[in-house]
Known about the structure:
Layout: H1 15-18, E1 39-45, E2 48-53, E3 57-63, E4 66-70, E5 74-77, E6 83-87, E7 97-102, E8 105-110, E9 115-123, E10 126-128, E11 134-137, E12 141-146, E13 155-161, E14 164-169
Parallel strand pairs: 1-3, 2-4, 3-5, 4-6, 5-7, 6-8, 7-13, 8-14, 9-13, 10-14
Antiparallel strand pairs: 9-12, 11-12
Amino acid sequence: TVCPTKPGQTECQAADKAGTEGPGTRVDFIVRVPEGVGLTGRTVNGAVQAESLRSDIEAYTVNGQVRVSTTGSVQARTVNGSITASLQNPFWRKAPKFSTVNGAITLTLPAASNTFVRAETRNGKVLTDFASLRGRISDQRVEGKIGAGSSATPLTLQTINGTIQIKRIL
């Protein structure tokens, strides 16, 4: 995406910097992704949303929320924003990873999931609906198995300032 610029300019400037009045520029992309085709979404200031996919997703932003749902695996990262994700299949080819610095992580998994979980927060709590989760569990750190989980493709969730919730799809 290229925004209008003055001759000789090499970057897009916000309206107040360009000397014009009015709101800044905003671009929303709507992309339809065929089943089985992976998606990588990246932005600096804005949200990444990828919902109801049937493929692997990578979603990265600096200042914004990440919202994803898929039958595949997910790699999601933001610095200032929350992550909301739904993994609709209990089996993954690639280990799912979720990380943020300033934000909560809410992950929904199928009730039949079998995975090894590593979840950690410094300023918040780790909460889970999975009564079958066993291992090292404290308010701010969980390391253990859901079901017959294997550490071959561990599920990793990390935040510094925020709560981590691991919910069960009923």
